[in-house]
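Hey L., structure's done. Input below.
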Amino acid sequence: DVPETNISPRYGKNIKYLKSGNTVYVRGSISFSASLNNPCCGTMPSDLLPDDYQDHVFTAWNLLGGVPTAYPVVLAKDGKITLMNPTSTAQWFEAGRAYNFNFNYHIG
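Output:
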């Protein structure tokens, strides 16, 4: 499980990681107890972060509500995983709705 350090108020969370060789795979589903912008989902362990000390941005999709909407998932250089609001709509991440994402990256 991805540690819950700095996590935003949540209703449910299932975020896992797997290290295989020099590749780290992250798969998650999270829902929040309140509508939010840019919620933090957890913090990756420091020994599983990329060596380039930069933020990495991945794309996830919200398939509910009609037209699928892409939103960025940021793995910050300090290990925080944050879902970013793709629009100017206030509190884009709605309370109770599950948001799913998958990404992988290389370390070492």
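The beta strands are 10-20, 23-32, 40-43, 56-62, 69-75, 80-83, 99-106. The CA atoms of residues 13 and 30 lie 4 Å apart.

-- N.
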